Amino acid sequence: MVNNNRSTYAARPMDTLKNSLEKNVMIDVRGSRSYSGILQGYDVYMNLVLKNVSETINGENRGVFEKMLLRGDNIIFLSPSGGD
Amino acid sequence: MVNNNRSTYAARPMDTLKNSLEKNVMIDVRGSRSYSGILQGYDVYMNLVLKNVSETINGENRGVFEKMLLRGDNIIFLSPSGGD
Amino acid sequence: MVNNNRSTYAARPMDTLKNSLEKNVMIDVRGSRSYSGILQGYDVYMNLVLKNVSETINGENRGVFEKMLLRGDNIIFLSPSGGD
Amino acid sequence: MVNNNRSTYAARPMDTLKNSLEKNVMIDVRGSRSYSGILQGYDVYMNLVLKNVSETINGENRGVFEKMLLRGDNIIFLSPSGGD
Amino acid sequence: MVNNNRSTYAARPMDTLKNSLEKNVMIDVRGSRSYSGILQGYDVYMNLVLKNVSETINGENRGVFEKMLLRGDNIIFLSPSGGD
Amino acid sequence: MVNNNRSTYAARPMDTLKNSLEKNVMIDVRGSRSYSGILQGYDVYMNLVLKNVSETINGENRGVFEKMLLRGDNIIFLSPSGGD
Amino acid sequence: MVNNNRSTYAARPMDTLKNSLEKNVMIDVRGSRSYSGILQGYDVYMNLVLKNVSETINGENRGVFEKMLLRGDNIIFLSPSGGD
Questions:
Q1: Overall average pLDDT of the D16-41 stretch
Q2: DSSP run (H or E) holding F69
Q3: B17 φ, ψ to 5°?
Q4: Closest to D72 (Cα-Cα) out of D29, D24, D25, D26
Q5: Per-residue model confidence as pLDDT tens digits over F22-59
Q6: Is C46–E70 a contact, with Cβ atoms under 8 angstroms apart?
Q7: Phi and psi for D74 in degrees, rounded to 5?
């Protein structure tokens, strides 16, 4: 079921970011933080530019931010809301 | 809805900093710290120069600083106050 | 039982990822988090692309995610579900 | 209000250090530590040489040091006492 | 008792891994985790490929894994079971 | 009070180490540890060689060590006992 | 008391390791761990190969290991038992 040159076709992590541009994403961050918003940009360090962001800390809604630069360092995972 | 060369037009994280120069920004930092002030400069490590800074630790106002050099290492996110 | 050029035949960590493509994997992450899903891609930093992901935090089921980009930084181990 | 070549004029973080030489600075460090003294030197890692330093840990005065080499790693922010 | 060119004959850390291939090893990992299994491979980051792995967390047996890719980042030490 | 080429004359952090050779130094280390001894050597990572070292953990005297190699990683600050 | 070319004669941290080969050393590690054994090898990352190792965690004897590869990352200090 895995052919030898399969890795050539494997989904690249950075492509997940590219394919999520202008879409809603959910991001879990160290320290029990979670952010949900529209991905507007990124760089190779996974620093993200987000729009219309809702922040959750320890399960509680905290803030809403029109725009946000989120550092990649602290990210645990990013999930696109509507598939890829 | 996403064309293949979309990434060319994606917002770059460093541009968020550039576009926030001389504007008010809010920065969340590890250790339940938050800083609000006017962004005067930055470098590629996200070290920031801020002016007229208010500090909040664990939700309490702490200090006011005329000028501050904030290390990029500890930053969780930066949000421009009035959009971009 | 170990011949001198055995290391030539040793399993390479990155091959474990390659051989797990399109298979179910279980990943333990710092902060008492665990993720189970189908591996779709990876890069040299062990950033992973996963599909149909179940999340467990402190032993409790939390979320289900159609797609996820999981940062390699926080990974403790990855185990393929059905051998290699 | 922001012209396109503004970043050329932006304050550089390292200049904040240069402009603080021989002046009093206040430095917050991870672990609820704070140091106040005269900045005598620095390097690109933000390692600092300080003179006449007062140390505060968890809000309590601890020590006074004639001279100190403070590692940049642990610094959260540095603030010059009398502007820039 | 130490001659000057002794370092030439010193055991190299990576050789401990090489000499442990196909042998049972015990690995202590940050977060009170311990893994015991047969070493099948490694890379320069000390990422390990293990077979027939028993996991202990806080002194309790947790899981058994047929195969595991353990990240080198979190390792405290590795000990070969039967010498070298 | 600060002339423009002052930075040329600024004290360099590594010079503080050089000037402390064969002198008594006090070193604060993460984890509420403190070491006091005679500095015998160092490298660019701030790894230190110390002689006649007293160790304090959480304010309690612990050990005395004839010789010690202290890793730079964990150092918060170093202070020479008798100025520079 | 310090002549200008003294640094040339300063003890180099790596030499402390070289001079400790085949001798007993004591190593303190983050997480209240301590290891005592005979140093058999090391590399530039301070990864160590140890023989006849006693482990202490939180002041309690835990294990004895015939051989151990200890990662340099977590080391706080190493002290040779019988001087240098």
A1: 97
A2: strand F60-70
A3: -65, -45
A4: D29
A5: 999 999 999 999 999 999 999 999 999 999 999 999 99
A6: no
A7: -95, 0
Tokens of G65: 């290991």
Q: Which of B48, A64, A32 is nearest to D15 (CA)?
A: B48
Q: Which value does ipTM take for this structure?
A: 0.89
Phi, psi of C15 (to 5 degrees): -70, -30
Mean residue pLDDT across chain D: 89
pLDDT score of B65: 97
- Nearest-angstrom CA–CA distance, G26 and C39: 43
Burial A65-78 (b: 16+ CB within 10 A, else e): bebbbbbbbbbbbb
List the domains of chain A with CATH numbers.
6-80 (2.30.30.100)
| pLDDT tens readout for residues G1-48 | 334 444 445 899 999 999 999 999 999 999 999 999 999 999 999 999
Per the CB < 8 Å rule, is B11 touching A40? yes
Which residues have a Cβ under 8 Å from the Cβ of E41 and sit 6 or more positions away?
C10, C11, C12, C13, C15, C16, E21, E48, E49
Interface touch G49/E14, C-beta < 8 Å: no
Looking at the complex, does the CB of residue D44 fall below 8 Å from at least one CB of chain B?
Answer: no
